Amino acid sequence: MSSLVVIGAQWGDEGKGKLVDYLTTNADVVVRFQGGNNAGHTLVVDGVTTKLHLVPSGILHEGTRCFIAAGVVLNPDVFAQELDGLEKAGINITPERIIIDRDTHLITPYHVALDEARERSRGADKIGTTGRGIGPAYEDRANRTGIRMAELLNMEELEQKILKNVEEKNRYLTGALGATEEVSADEVISFLKRAADRLIPHIGNVSLLIEQARKLEKRIIFEGAQGTLLDQMHGTLPYVTSSHTLSGAVFTGCGIGPRSLDSVLGVAKAYCTRVGEGPFPTELHDDTGEQLRTKGGEIGTTTGRPRRCGWFDAVAMKRAVRLNGFDSLAITKLDVLSGLEQIKVCINYRLDGSKVEDVPSLSSELAKVEPEYITFDGWEDDLTGIRKWHHLPAEARFYLATLAEIVACPISLVSVGPERSSTIFSSTASFVSNFMG
Ligand code: IMP
Fold first, then answer.
1. 2-102+205-260 topology per CATH
2. Which one of 1.10.300.10, 3.30.70.141, 2.40.50.140, 3.90.1170.20 gives the CATH number of domain 105-199?
3. Measured between alpha carbons, how far is 399 from 406 in angstroms, rounded to an integer?
4. What are 332-360's pLDDT values in tens digits?
5. What is the pTM of this model?
6. Which atom of ligand 1 is nearest to the CA of 134?
7. Nearest CA to ligand 1 atom 22
């Protein structure tokens, strides 16, 4: 048992980066397989904070290799800046250590311009994207005009492709989307030349490397980005991202078969948050919501937007357990609930008076559901120093045990603070504890 995928079980920002960093203590390879720099992962080790958007969250562990697989969309400037920051902090960023798949698609300035212009043109119907060009880059992958890492190796051919792409994008930008400025082909070409100069040494074949690592029985963590409810097909459309965020995405995203994965870990906050637009049945518009936002530091790592906060939604979580096949859950930010007199969990949705079986497909219906809650007693204790399951207050253990029962998935890990060390194992964490040795 040597490979594990870590998946966001809610709307992203569940604390996957922290968990991946923690689990990497025992991993040889960490792989990002979808999303791009719309993600923001915060790692805190011995009081030092590292924020990452693209580099896998295993990077702080010397000796761990970090791969960006084909399913990611990569902005080379952002990636280079991230490498510079890591190098300044004394982290090894050599091409042996950090490899980008030859088939990974690139985000260029025209993707960013399209993302921004489309959001503007949507007006009140905007999705609230991160504005990083993620959607347009995935669109180009699907319409077969995208730019892949390997194309940086032949700049002459790439320049011709860019001229055509930019012409088409400018027509769309200034015509359909009403943008006032065109994108300059020269700027895009210099952007890609800069990318070639910096990133060509990092190009590799991640699919092959993963196969080789598996043959050598290396321990591999596949690091998901965003969350289940933001999945392009199974999320709360249209308020979703443009990649598949589910565990199944690991196979196509990396170019590996389904038997390459041994376990699926879902990461969920002890409550719920969402950034950007879209329905959120358990959202709190009161002081409790504000308390969660303040105490939980619920501000987006990527965009700095305040996150919307609400109660844990077990209806959505049951869906996440099914869509991903979670073997266990890691519950994060349990410490943020300390001090609340009562804690609620949504166990059913009612739509027009009737109980609904699953999260409705239409956002207009999801926006109308009425959540039914069960209420738990809160606890006062500060949990941040606790490292053992049985040291948690009885109310907190009851809360966790009940969540696990409702969503029919064991809880293997609990996080009680941003520090790597603020992590607690449960006794039911068989795979995860095996992985950790
Ligand atoms: P995009 O991925 O930038 O296209 O944004 C689409 C939606 O996904 C927006 O609601 C974003 O706020 C949300 N989103 C994208 N990435 C993340 C993330 O890493 N965490 C939380 N929300 C995200």
1. Adenylosuccinate Synthetase; Chain A, domain 1 (3.40.440)
2. 1.10.300.10
3. 11
4. 999 999 999 999 999 999 999 999 999 99
5. 0.96
6. 4
7. 12
